[in-house]
């Protein structure tokens, strides 16, 4: 993303036009009066007539009732039936128009409803006009349902706004007339949206309205208002209901405004939000990680409250509430984990002790109430609760980097952390304090709170609905959220202590169970404060941050200052509704977003936009979850409430953590990973995140008084703690001076032969022991893709030891029917500036031909020794490449004596003689017959004979020999070393591989080394033979990669000084390293399997350099901070409005630009797809934190 200035348009010109056409539709419920093109007048007239139809039918019923020609009920039914008939007629016309239009489309005519809505109208009732005004429903069931609901709504709406009813409510004919007229505007808007054309709602929860639920939203709210009025009419005298009806009749007039502003939620969001709020504040539960869990938990918890109401014994209520509250506060989805021995025993013990304590206290002391609360049995328990709260709060505060709400630095927290071990040693004292807090909070406080509730005198008045629900919640929240429950009981105790011996009639009559609903008040106050902080951040930074200062910033600040009471009212209303505070376009223009669940998104948790970098987050998620489990138990991250957001930072990785639900001894979280390829906006915010963490964790040992403050307090991020996590550390190096050093390259050939000999011998040993050496991830054979290349895909019937060979495949493979291998059709100069070049044969091509039955290349397909560059380097200028050395075929070389063992080096791959080994154990190290049949001249092999490392072969044989002997024998090992036939066999195979890879001469070109490392091997004389044996080819390629890694290490750390050191180094490569390419599946699998080290060779085409990348798995400190949860919810609410309603998907829009205080770009990334784009998102992770 190119970071743009603050005055980038909020909406581009096309989106602005689109928005100003859509918004009037939303206000009026669906009529389209602003089209953007000329339309006949009857289009507008038809919409006006349909809009006013409910008013006409309602007016008929009202007039007949006012003239006393019909009774109230009959007038209501008449209006409803008329509206039902009109709705049925509209739906019939829409269905007829759809069928006619469908017939025309099947005949091949273009669709008249194009995207720009430029419709050609013919007459007032043509199919085009009908489809434009009333598109119709997608489902037949909705046609019936919505038509019936339209009649019901019109009938009850007529009844709701009868002038006689309004006059009785307000005692004023003038007020009644105003309410009557404006109420019918609201009803017409809802009817039009239901039956004619549904407008796009600003309160959009789902990206798509699959089941056509949106048309039901506005009628539902009207029916809720009517239901309250019906309750007032048919119930006895109830001043509260009459007052509510008066208020709602006035509020009814403002429903169109509330719908246009998006304050009222859609049906699905309203249902989920209502269940969540009732479960948390009415029944003592927790928000759930999925909609299904929320529905099941809500139903079960409501059933418990109903049972409590009907249990006749107060003792039975106490025991039942404690047992069900404890069980429902556990993570019942992890039943298998809960039923394990130690944990099951602990939970059973806790439950039995709690029930015994409550039963005994209530039975013996529950009725012994004193006139003075200070002399009653609850007083000592109350003081105990105060002491426990103070200790738990203090011990939790010192666990984090900051204290007192993130204002002051914690002097006890470790400073200047150098490594993990030092951090753990310095943190040992805090670990002890955390263990004490955990015992007090989870094992002592619940029993103290149960004792307090069991001794309450209001238990004797239990058979009232409010008290039954209140005590159900009180006994549940003791377990569900012990920390919050302790705070709520302390507030109750402080109120009683402040009253002294005086009675508080209103307070005491509520009972302790209902008094604990102060938790609702405390939650709303907390939300108000966090929303207010977010508001001030947006206001202040819109002026102080130069890159955020728009031309309208001064005007908006002055407007907010002059309307300060209104701004506070908006913040207060959003806090009371537990709705997000929506900053429009993230400007200081604040609206109340519609209430929604704490998760903010409707879809299941765990959706992401994966990419190759996702594996790093997937690998670290398990270790991070384990570290979070410990941090949650210790209280290092502060108070954990569902809906809390945390941000973790390590090197270039950003981890977004969200708390989904919380219970007794468990927590459920979602871990998201943000993109690693940082844009400019991402980089700006990442730099600020680093600054915030550095100020908290890398400060000096001693701080002055002024330095003890959090200088980044206004930032959305507050550092909490550093967590030790097993994660890959990523180091990247430019290989200039290593890969282009001639001294280093001269060693590469010798190292390759040594590595190949070692791998051949190890392969024989592993095969002798009964399992293949090649592991699951394979040797990492791969090649780079280019625009004109294709991936060579392996079939599913490959042997298990085979690996996917990703290499450049010439188009010859796919053109056999049009151009044979003997033709010169591929010798084209279209892609080459320097004339025709012969087609290059790569490994994948040779492999493909072998699979298609080609025994060898026919004449004319390519020239021996040629190296094509069109596929591999087509994105790079040829002048930037170093010249490749031509590969000689040994033609014209002087004749040489064949030397020893002429039966080994043969001129032709004919029948092979039997090998005569001198040692019986040599047969273990025998190689397959096909590996000896390289079609190479004996003279070439003899010429390279001196390159074979005889001493290294004998040394390696001495190391591997004892592994294949039943009893270790020095004589047998010596015989293996001196077996000339065995040595010559390995010599032939190793040198044949060397020639087949084109490495018979010393390496001089870094580009050629890179191509061999990538598996992009140019054609050589022996390449057909080498590629025909996948095992040998993989061994050879793996040996070359080992040799290059050896070159890299020797250039960095110094030369290998002894055979023992070299042997040990190769063992470490095989055991602890994956050496390959980043694009290979083996790299992906090795990261997930947590291979200790990974190495990859890469090329930076822009800089013209080669790079080495090393991943090291080790325990590192991941810095974690708490985000302003209300700021996150507010920005996500704006994102939902901006993309789903305003369709502002511009990648350079203002609301996605970097904001160092709000972390706007990171917050947008962390949203669930399709609005956000995290590259990794875990399923809900349940883990214990007791």
UniProtKB/TrEMBL annotation:
Keyword terms of this UniProt record: Membrane, Transmembrane, Transmembrane helix
Keyword Chloroplast: no
Entry's localization field: Membrane
InterPro entries per UniProt: Pecanex, Pecanex_C
Transmembrane intervals: 42-65, 77-97, 143-163, 175-195, 247-273, 345-365, 556-577
Keyword Membrane: yes
Pfam families: Pecanex_C (PF05041)
Major subcellular site: membrane
Membrane-topology descriptor: Multi-pass membrane protein
Domain Pecanex C-terminal, chain residue ranges per copy: 1007-1178
A GO cellular component annotation in the UniProt record: membrane
PANTHER family the UniProt entry points to: PECANEX, PECANEX-LIKE PROTEIN 4
Protein family according to the UniProt entry: Belongs to the pecanex family.
Protein name in UniProt: Pecanex-like protein
UniProt source species: Gasterosteus aculeatus aculeatus
